[in-house]
């Protein structure tokens, strides 16, 4: 049996995770200005999604109203 199998694999997994973390030297973070632009963009998308969701809801209500009139 290999050493990994006898230890249940946890020792090998810890070693692998440490080795992966060690390889990461730097993580680049966008400038504050760029982060703000990204946040503004995502906020605009959220607002657009909310507006479309409301439009869908109103259209579904309109459809229900038309179906009720049609069945009367």
Summarize the structure.
This protein is mostly helical and 72 residues long.
What report would you give on this structure?
81% of the residues lie in helices and 0% in strands. It has 72 residues and is mostly helical. The chain is built from three helices and no strands.
Q: Name the structural class.
A: mainly alpha
Portion of residues in helices? over 70%
Low-confidence stretches: 1-7
| Distance separating the two termini | 78 Å
Major sheet description:
none
Strand tally? 0
Rg, please?
27 Å
Helices and strands in order, then pairings?
Elements lengths: L2 H4 L3 H14 L8 H40 L1
Keywords:
72 residues, mainly alpha, 3 helices, 0% strand
